[in-house]
Amino acid sequence: MTAVLVVLALILTMGYALVNSFHDVPNATAIPVRHRALTPRAALILAALLNMLGVVAAAIMLPLADLDLFVTDLIDPAPALGVIICALLTTIGWDLLTWWWGLPSSSTSAFTGAVLGASVAVGWVGLTAELPLDMSTFWHLAVPVLVAPVVAFVIAWVLVIPAVRGLRHVEANQVRLLARVGMVVGSTGTNVGHGLFHGQRVLLLLLTIPALGGFTSGASDSALPAAVVVTALAFAIGSLFGAWRIARTISTRMVGTDALRGGIAQVVSGLLLFAGGITSGVTLSTSQTTTAAVLGTGINQKYRATNHRIVGQILVCWVLTPVVSAVVGGTLVLAISPLLGA
What we know:
Layout: H1 2-24, H2 26-34, H3 40-60, H4 77-101, H5 107-124, H6 135-166, H7 172-212, H8 224-239, H9 244-253, H10 259-279, H11 286-299, H12 308-336
């Protein structure tokens, strides 16, 4: 049974990499495509290549990761694999559902919430007495849900003021050109940051799952090159599908932005995600960081351009994501607990 769980967990990990990159690529493509800084094809190809670069960088930085989030310290491998399987199933399902709704939700919040709920369920049915839950787990949830979006929103809102005043005498064509350059730069940072954050998670899972099943003695460095190759390919393939439903929400349905404000939003999100990826062990949400930055610039203008109904739906989705994921993850663990030894 352990071998079956290992194989299923590995398959779901690759499925998560594909769906996650598909779901999150609009964060780097929506604004540049909307303002014609990039064509749709060029934006997706650039996203695929830069996500691959981010995965390679994640492999180099892998020892810096905070491993507390992963349930590798459970004595019995079956419950640990059960938690991972249920968390991945929950995250994949939520990503697909929010894509269908066209809502930019956080895969990080979904995954962390699902791990939390599944871990509680494992302890509840008596499969383990030591739950891998501490303040670092909740920090992994609080940063993408609360801290990063607020920081992105405030910075983007504030930067509009000096940008508008400083460029008020510059010709419109030059402003648009400058903004488009900023969009490409910001999109680059967003793509690389996404590859860093989520690539690191996928690599850790690919290295941890065989160890839990007893097929390796630990997270072996010898398996890392192969894990990097398959992860990078999965991220690239997923990115090429586009997820334009979410892109339309970010670029037009939520709030209307001119090229200058779009450029500011993309630069802010790109810098935050890139800087966070290379300096922090806490995963930021690319979706919530980018959406908050776009909303911050869009609100800071004289005429009304905000669709409050859509903004409300997005905020409700952000709040519900960890809660629903925790409930679903825990429920799935309870459903398969007889297979895990309960």
